[in-house]
Amino acid sequence: MWQWFHKLGSPKWFYGIANRLMPWLLAGGLIVLLAGLVWGLAFAPKDYLQGNSYRIIFIHVPAAFLAQSIYIMMAVAAVVTLVWRMKLADVFVKAIAPVGLVLTFLSLFTGAVWGKPTWGTWWVWDARLTSMLILLFLYGGAIALDRAINDEKSAARAVAVLVLVGVVNIPIIKYSVDWWNTLHQPATFKLTEKPSMPMEMWVPLLLSVLGLYLLFGWLACLRMKTEILLREQRTRWVRELVLAGRK
Amino acid sequence: MNAESRPALKPVESAIGPVQAMVAVFMRDVRVAFRQRQDLLNPLLFFIMVVTLFPLGVSPEVAFLKQSGAGILWVAALLSVLLSLDHLFRHDFDDGTLEQLILQPQPLFLLILAKTLAHWILTGLPLVLLTPVLGIMVHLDGNSVAILCLTLLIGTPVLSLIGAIGAALTLGLRSAGVLLSLLIIPLYIPVLIFGTGTVAAAAEGAPVAGYLALMGAFLVLALTLAPFAAAAALRISMSNS
């Protein structure tokens, strides 16, 4: 078990694994996501209340789902960085933070687009929207801190501390925002809550969430590979790799 | 080698205990601050000026100010604590005191706790003391002012404690001030929500003990966890420079 653990710490070993894994992740992700999206956007039944406009759910929910779980993944990797100083863990955090930021933005944007026909407004200070906005700030802070520190080892560890502080705060922020919202206006937007949907809607939704996860895996591998090449550019194996690629 | 000829090496015992060290750090920070009194005054002036902007910029009407006064004061207090955080470690970092603090045998988090407490006494507490005056200026009634002061009294230490983490993380960076705000403001949101929520509940005649208890829970959580995070962040920042 420990051998596996040490191997996982080696960027070179990961580079090889990522190369083998990526085609599968890409193909699987594209197929599953396309299946989910086509099924959801074209064939799933209309919503009795919202008509066709609800179909943005097949993009909105996967993006929001992933945006939240990426932060949790970052927190787990942050613990690994701080406790075991594993190189790959901070490569992982650095590689996926911008992905998380983009997906959070995407979920806010699709939410706004969905809100316009449904609620008649682009934005409401609803608890869920606000906590996603704060998540966007948390991602932005982590990325800004990472960019501000020149030494990559200190940057990784500082970001790890920040991400951990953030993850302790996420439940507090979530509950306080929920509480704040219910204080000021009673929940008017029952539509934001997940409707108990029929199978024909639920299965394509599940497929698109799964597909986006696989694609995220591919993207994370790609970004981690780039970061590894940058960091290990002075090592022998990277030189050999680049020289072999040049021929 | 003759073992008996040499006295056994004893670990050097530190001359003072952790509590004494905390008191020493605290007293030093207070003394240094009182030698640069303008630095003490600046956050207070900033607090007053931000509050002044709202009647000028939004509306001087009594109804508006009554309704939003507590929120305005809370936001202004939050911003001026944020502004003062840059000083928390900066001077000690520049003159090397911070390195000596890290080298002390006493646990670093306790020393940071002492520094943060001094920071609160020097910035948070004066804000609380100034609040009644500004509260009257934004037409809050007596009960609301009292509750507002109480929430600020519990809330501003939380702001200082969370802020210490951000100050430690951004220590020695080029654009530390702006970055510090970016990192810390999202973490301040729960305190702000409960601070202003308590005053709003009090204005509606609802019981506020529960809200105050929750704010107290924030304070306890921040007191126990934030110094550790700040100590870890400080070690990282110092190894960076």
UniProtKB/TrEMBL annotation, chain A:
<dbReference type="InterPro" id="IPR045062">
    <property type="entry name" value="Cyt_c_biogenesis_CcsA/CcmC"/>
</dbReference>
<dbReference type="GO" id="GO:0015232">
    <property type="term" value="F:heme transmembrane transporter activity"/>
</dbReference>
<protein>
    <recommendedName>
        <fullName>Heme exporter protein C</fullName>
    </recommendedName>
</protein>
<keyword id="KW-1003">Cell membrane</keyword>
<feature type="transmembrane region" description="Helical">
    <location>
        <begin position="158"/>
        <end position="177"/>
    </location>
</feature>
<dbReference type="InterPro" id="IPR002541">
    <property type="entry name" value="Cyt_c_assembly"/>
</dbReference>
<keyword id="KW-0997">Cell inner membrane</keyword>
<feature type="transmembrane region" description="Helical">
    <location>
        <begin position="91"/>
        <end position="115"/>
    </location>
</feature>
<feature type="domain" description="Cytochrome c assembly protein">
    <location>
        <begin position="12"/>
        <end position="184"/>
    </location>
</feature>
<keyword id="KW-0201">Cytochrome c-type biogenesis</keyword>
<comment type="function">
    <text>Required for the export of heme to the periplasm for the biogenesis of c-type cytochromes.</text>
</comment>
<feature type="transmembrane region" description="Helical">
    <location>
        <begin position="127"/>
        <end position="146"/>
    </location>
</feature>
<dbReference type="GO" id="GO:0005886">
    <property type="term" value="C:plasma membrane"/>
</dbReference>
<comment type="similarity">
    <text>Belongs to the CcmC/CycZ/HelC family.</text>
</comment>
<dbReference type="Pfam" id="PF01578">
    <property type="entry name" value="Cytochrom_C_asm"/>
</dbReference>
<dbReference type="GO" id="GO:0017004">
    <property type="term" value="P:cytochrome complex assembly"/>
</dbReference>
<feature type="transmembrane region" description="Helical">
    <location>
        <begin position="21"/>
        <end position="44"/>
    </location>
</feature>
<feature type="transmembrane region" description="Helical">
    <location>
        <begin position="201"/>
        <end position="222"/>
    </location>
</feature>
<dbReference type="InterPro" id="IPR003557">
    <property type="entry name" value="Cyt_c_biogenesis_CcmC"/>
</dbReference>
<dbReference type="GO" id="GO:0020037">
    <property type="term" value="F:heme binding"/>
</dbReference>
<keyword id="KW-0812">Transmembrane</keyword>
<keyword id="KW-0472">Membrane</keyword>
Automatic annotation (TrEMBL), chain B:
<feature type="transmembrane region" description="Helical">
    <location>
        <begin position="40"/>
        <end position="58"/>
    </location>
</feature>
<keyword id="KW-0472">Membrane</keyword>
<feature type="transmembrane region" description="Helical">
    <location>
        <begin position="145"/>
        <end position="171"/>
    </location>
</feature>
<feature type="transmembrane region" description="Helical">
    <location>
        <begin position="178"/>
        <end position="203"/>
    </location>
</feature>
<dbReference type="Pfam" id="PF03379">
    <property type="entry name" value="CcmB"/>
</dbReference>
<keyword id="KW-1003">Cell membrane</keyword>
<keyword id="KW-0201">Cytochrome c-type biogenesis</keyword>
<keyword id="KW-0997">Cell inner membrane</keyword>
<dbReference type="GO" id="GO:0015232">
    <property type="term" value="F:heme transmembrane transporter activity"/>
</dbReference>
<feature type="transmembrane region" description="Helical">
    <location>
        <begin position="70"/>
        <end position="89"/>
    </location>
</feature>
<protein>
    <recommendedName>
        <fullName>Heme exporter protein B</fullName>
    </recommendedName>
</protein>
<comment type="function">
    <text>Required for the export of heme to the periplasm for the biogenesis of c-type cytochromes.</text>
</comment>
<keyword id="KW-0812">Transmembrane</keyword>
<dbReference type="InterPro" id="IPR026031">
    <property type="entry name" value="Cyt_c_CcmB_bac"/>
</dbReference>
<keyword id="KW-0813">Transport</keyword>
<dbReference type="GO" id="GO:0005886">
    <property type="term" value="C:plasma membrane"/>
</dbReference>
<keyword id="KW-1133">Transmembrane helix</keyword>
<feature type="transmembrane region" description="Helical">
    <location>
        <begin position="109"/>
        <end position="133"/>
    </location>
</feature>
<dbReference type="GO" id="GO:1903607">
    <property type="term" value="P:cytochrome c biosynthetic process"/>
</dbReference>
<dbReference type="InterPro" id="IPR003544">
    <property type="entry name" value="Cyt_c_biogenesis_CcmB"/>
</dbReference>
<dbReference type="GO" id="GO:0017004">
    <property type="term" value="P:cytochrome complex assembly"/>
</dbReference>
<comment type="similarity">
    <text>Belongs to the CcmB/CycW/HelB family.</text>
</comment>
